[in-house]
From TrEMBL:
The keyword Kinase does not apply. This is Putative nickel-responsive regulator. Residues 11-50 form the Ribbon-helix-helix protein CopG domain. It comes from the Archaea. GO terms for molecular function: DNA binding; DNA-binding transcription factor activity; nickel cation binding. Ni(2+) binds at H85, H96, H98, C104. SUPFAM superfamilies: ACT-like, Ribbon-helix-helix. Transcriptional regulator.
Length: 142
């Protein structure tokens, strides 16, 4: 069986909106990356680490889900509300703020089973028009 190392490179092609790529390039320049490839590798490593961290969350947890989304996205507000209403047993409270004309910030306070909390975060994350979702939890110590 052949071991795969990070030095074994594969080429991929991706399509990105210009504004997203421009923001990415600005960050790359600010942080001193020598190439987009280096920045993309770092971003993918970070994404994998975050996913693994979320996978390790177990048991009863208290936490917050922080979400930024485009409230102009057709049908998004209704879907986000439905997702939250499906989980009234876990969601304790939410705070909504208007950041710009198009962007909203929502902070959702959650308490309950880690698997259910992760399911909510992942459901929110999967919606078109949601720019970012971050889940932060701590164990509930009795």
């Amino acid at each position: 069986m052949k071991m795969t190392h990070e030095s074994d490179l594969s080429r991929i092609g991706i399509s990105l909106p210009k504004n997203l790529l421009d923001k990415f390039d600005t960050i790359l320049e600010y942080r001193g990356y020598s190439s987009r490839s280096e920045g993309i590798r770092d971003a993918i490593r970070s994404y994998i680490t975050y996913y693994q961290w979320m996978s390790d969350v177990e048991g009863e947890r208290q936490g917050v889900i922080t979400m930024v989304y485009d409230h102009e996205q057709r049908g998004l507000l209704q879907v986000l509300t439905e997702i939250q209403h499906e989980h009234l047993d876990i969601i304790q409270s939410s705070l909504h703020a208007h950041v710009t004309h198009d962007k909203c910030l929502e902070i959702i306070l959650v308490r309950g089973d880690a698997g259910k909390i992760k399911k909510i975060a992942e459901s929110l994350m999967a919606q078109k028009g949601v720019d970012s979702v971050k889940l932060t939890t701590i164990p509930i110590e009795e």
